[in-house]
């Protein structure tokens, strides 16, 4: 590493002007954890990332990593460590003929979506445009058209990585295969800093069509029972979401959202037609059906549900019991203290990992229902009531959990990390961590005890 890179590396020490602002920006919402790195480095080149790793090693600091800061628990923040903030690494290059993209970790989902839309190319881009690709790709990446494309991490074909000793290595199907495996879903357990991903792209379906239905919470059992039966008949290109949300007029409801992807408009609309067979459709509060939409419009809608100026708590669960779980969650949702609380559910057709995608990945756990439990509130004095509601609502989710999503799990709770993987994958990930980063330079999922 050139000494120029080290001397030019921007580093803010704890207590210096600008430190607190940058520390807070390491977490995308307003409830920043009380964990204070010794220093924060903001490299703007791969050489500076390697310099930052050397800087940490020389001072005996462990390393926390931030790409976009969208892990709700502020996973990059650890007491006394060096936080390496990768948000300035934002190069993106599309190889149209080779149908691949090279992206740096600070690139946001919105930027990639725009770049692909201009070229008629598709990828399971994040539902929310603000999420950075660094953590998203490493965690799994549940994006638009995932039932068809599979989780985004399975599209990673190559990663460029700065290791604990400062070495820059490439990993693909022939070189450093363990690192490629770990990058495909290992999340914060990845034992290095990914400075570039190469991902495979798809031809984008020409049309994206949306149907959405708002049902009274009391109809949840009927809707989910019908949907579980219907699910197997729907085309793979139909993505199903079920959210417990509060409408602007204050009405709490179950919103069924289905998006179909197809090269023909009539084909996409036909994919959504079965949703008109809901036995309680006549009682729907609202129906918006067969509307043509775009990934950008759907991302803007997703972002509108997740205001970053709020205090936030989030956790996620995989379960196999949608029919019994959803009605119970609806009862809890009726008493959510925050108007902007949301229980987001994705009904995943089995298998989530589509058969024609190589499942050579750390990503290894999923169930039939993915649930994201979130509350958004404004005032610190409302923390307790919101956290109590989350704890109570988590109970049925915990009881039926078959695993967790490493991208959004609350790692302050026990066993979350290992239960985000099947047993063999967890063991292999730990082995790769021990051999690649034997000194444990890179912080992982866990936080030191308070
Ligand atoms: C509003 C919102 C919407 C979301 N929508 C989706 C969605 O649609 N689909 C989905 O799958 N997930 C979604 N997520 C979850 C999100 O993908 C994960 O939390 C992901 O980790 C965020 O990436 P990040 O880089 O912004 O996170 P960060 O908080 O910056 O990173 C989290 C951790 O990942 C590791 N990491 C990040 N970058 C690197 C790197 N370059 N090298 C090595 N390790 C790294 C580090 O351990 C880091 O601490 C959403 C989250 C939020 C808050």
- Give the CA-based shape: globular
What small molecules are bound in this structure?
flavin-adenine dinucleotide
Mean pLDDT: 93
Query: How many DSSP E strands?
Result: 19
Going by CATH, the architecture of the largest domain would be: 3-Layer(aba) Sandwich
In helices, the fraction of residues equals: 25-40%
Q: Looking at CATH, which topology of the largest domain would you report?
A: Vanillyl-alcohol Oxidase, Chain A, domain 3
Structural class: alpha+beta
How many structural domains?
Answer: 3
CATH class of the largest domain: Alpha Beta
Verbal overview:
With 450 residues, the chain is α+β, with helices and mostly antiparallel strands. The chain has 3 domains: 83 residues, Uridine Diphospho-n-acetylenolpyruvylglucosamine Reductase, domain 2 (2-Layer Sandwich), CATH 3.30.43; 113 residues, Uridine Diphospho-n-acetylenolpyruvylglucosamine Reductase, domain 3, CATH 3.30.465; 197 residues, Vanillyl-alcohol Oxidase, Chain A, domain 3 (3-Layer(aba) Sandwich). The chain is built from 13 helices and 19 strands. It has an 8-stranded antiparallel β-sheet. The chain has a 5-stranded antiparallel β-sheet with strand order 5-6-10-8-9. A hairpin with a 5-residue loop joins β8 and β9. α8 packs antiparallel against α11 and α11 packs antiparallel against α12. The protein is globular. The model has no long low-confidence stretch (mean pLDDT 93). The site of flavin-adenine dinucleotide has 35 residues, from β3, α5 and β10.
């Amino acid at each position: 590493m050139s000494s120029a890179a080290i001397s030019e590396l921007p580093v803010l020490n704890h207590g210096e002007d600008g430190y607190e602002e940058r520390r807070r920006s390491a977490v995308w919402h307003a409830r920043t954890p009380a964990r204070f790195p010794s220093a924060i480095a903001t490299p703007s080149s791969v050489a500076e990332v390697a310099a930052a790793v050397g800087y940490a090693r020389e001072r005996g600091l462990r390393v926390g990593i931030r790409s976009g800061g969208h892990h709700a628990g502020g996973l990059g923040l650890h007491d006394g460590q060096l936080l390496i903030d990768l948000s300035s690494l934002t190069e993106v290059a599309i190889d149209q003929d080779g149908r691949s993209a090279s992206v740096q970790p600070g690139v946001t989902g919105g930027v990639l979506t725009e770049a692909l839309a201009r070229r008629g190319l598709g990828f399971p881009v994040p539902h929310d445009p603000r999420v950075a690709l660094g953590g998203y790709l490493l965690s799994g990446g549940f994006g638009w058209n995932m039932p068809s494309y599979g989780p985004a991490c399975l599209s990673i074909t190559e990663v460029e990585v700065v290791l604990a000793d400062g070495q820059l290595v490439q990993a693909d199907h022939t070189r450093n295969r363990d690192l490629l495996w770990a990058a495909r879903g290992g999340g914060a357990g990845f034992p290095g800093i990914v400075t570039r991903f190469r991902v495979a792209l798809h031809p984008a379906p020409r049309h994206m069509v949306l149907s959405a239905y708002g049902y009274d919470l009391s109809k949840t059992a009927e809707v989910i029972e019908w949907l579980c039966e219907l699910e197997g008949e729907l085309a793979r290109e139909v993505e199903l979401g079920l959210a417990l949300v509060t409408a602007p007029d204050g009405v709490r409801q179950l919103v069924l959202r289905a998006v179909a992807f197809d090269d023909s408009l009539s084909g996409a609309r036909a994919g959504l037609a079965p949703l008109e067979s809901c036995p309680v459709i006549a009682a729907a509060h609202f129906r918006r059906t067969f509307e043509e939409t775009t990934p950008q419009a759907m991302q803007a809608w997703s972002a509108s549900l997740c205001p970053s100026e709020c205090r936030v708590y989030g956790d996620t669960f995989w379960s196999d019991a949608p029919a019994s779980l959803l009605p119970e969650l609806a009862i809890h949702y009726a008493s959510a203290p925050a108007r902007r609380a949301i229980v987001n559910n994705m009904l995943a057709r089995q298998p989530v990992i589509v058969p024609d995608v190589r499942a050579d990945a750390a990503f290894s756990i999923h169930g039939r229902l993915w649930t994201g439990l979130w509350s958004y509130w404004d005032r610190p004095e409302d923390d307790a009531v919101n956290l109590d509601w989350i704890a109570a609502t988590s109970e049925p989710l915990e009881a039926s959990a078959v695993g967790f999503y490493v991208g959004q799990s609350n790692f302050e709770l026990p066993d979350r990390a290992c239960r985000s993987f099947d047993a063999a994958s967890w063991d292999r990930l730990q082995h790769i961590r021990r051999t690649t980063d034997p000194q444990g330079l890179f912080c992982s999922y866990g936080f030191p005890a308070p």
